[in-house]
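Structure (tokenized):
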């Protein structure tokens, strides 16, 4: 999810990553008031980028609604890319923004944009660690950004013990497998008969088979009921 103040270059970054004019770009602050999103694959990992309304205080009702929706959606994001314009952001403003992002307890990247306008401004943020500097309009630094995204996602997955599933069909099959296995566990607790247990186990195996391309039930079920006493 790409967030930041108005005119930080969020829409330009989205267009650059997608290599198309997906989001409308304008010098007028507050142009983006709703979510604009699309997917790209980076080394086989599917990323869904979401461009959001610029974060600021405003009296515009529609823009305020967009900003509030952005804050709500940030709570559901897998990663936050906070973009700031290196030419008009103070050290104090960046500290406040980072502190707010940390409250979401979500992996994040801090990206300084528009270095093409004045690269000397980078020196103002020399006390900050891990800032990635880019020029979205010139598509400079995008490859390094993609690498940072991959590194952050992989680190988060290793840290939490999660597995990154990039194929939607696989995700649905694994979700269905999990639901079937939960039924099996519940049936065991309720001392359900073997016939009903077998039905749920077959269903779980079927969903796994959708991923592996092989669905074989009888031999596995024979081993389960041959070695364990399940149900009466």
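Design, position by position:
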């Amino acid at each position: 999810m790409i967030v930041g103040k108005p005119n930080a270059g969020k829409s330009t970054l989205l267009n650059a990553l997608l290599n198309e004019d997906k989001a409308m770009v304008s010098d007028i602050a507050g142009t983006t008031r709703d979510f604009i999103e699309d997917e790209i694959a980076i080394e086989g990992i599917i990323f869904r980028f979401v461009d959001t309304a610029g974060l600021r205080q405003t009296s515009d009702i529609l823009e305020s609604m967009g900003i509030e929706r952005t804050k709500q959606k940030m709570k559901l994001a897998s990663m936050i890319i906070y973009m700031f314009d290196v030419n008009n952001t103070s050290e104090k403003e960046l500290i406040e923004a980072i502190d707010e992002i940390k409250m979401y307890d979500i992996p994040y990247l801090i990206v300084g944009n528009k270095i093409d306008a004045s690269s000397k401004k980078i020196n103002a943020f020399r006390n900050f660690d891990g800032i990635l500097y880019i020029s979205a309009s010139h598509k400079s630094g995008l490859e390094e950004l993609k690498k940072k995204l991959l590194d952050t996602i992989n680190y988060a997955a290793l840290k939490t013990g999660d597995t990154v599933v990039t194929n939607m069909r696989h995700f649905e099959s694994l979700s269905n497998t999990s639901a079937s296995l939960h039924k099996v566990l519940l049936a065991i607790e309720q001392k359900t008969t073997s016939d009903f247990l077998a039905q749920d186990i077959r269903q779980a195996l079927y969903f796994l088979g959708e991923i592996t391309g092989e669905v074989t039930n009888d031999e596995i079920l024979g081993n389960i009921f041959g070695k364990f006493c399940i149900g009466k």
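Reviewer-requested clarification: Residues 168-227 form one domain. The chain has two domains: 2-160, 168-227.
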